[in-house]
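Dear support,

I submitted the protein below through the web form. The confirmation email said the job was done, but the results page showed an empty box. After a refresh the structure appeared. I'm attaching both so you can tell me whether what I see now is the final result or a partial one.
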Amino acid sequence: MLYFGDRQTIIDSDCSATKQVTRTIPHTTNIADATLRELLKGTTKEENDMGLTDNFSNASGYLGNDVEPLLSYYTGLSIQDGIATIDFSSGALQYLNNAACIQATVKSPIKKTLQQFPDIEDMRYFIDGKEFTEWDA
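What the results page shows now:
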């Protein structure tokens, strides 16, 4: 299962609202990493038509012309002692450290998607190898 933003609920009341979709993930030994990569590819046209949305692509240019899709800044995922460590390069901060509602529309689908795995209880974000805990709002 992947979780994407529920466009109408986000507009009406809750920036972290999500809905689930089912996709087939390629066979791999790191299914959580493959699932997150699939999520960060964003919604399909059909999912978009169903009212799902994502803020992973910057397709509208709302983050500026030189900002790549979030997937291009993703460098990997590891899991240890129930904690998923999500690694990004610094360009991801445009997505992850933005206004509170934009942060919620990006982080909530990531969190919901990863927390479906029984070995993931919580997650940490790393930027260029350092844990990032101070978020703007």
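Response: this is the final, complete result; the empty box was a page-load delay. The chain has one domain: 2-131.
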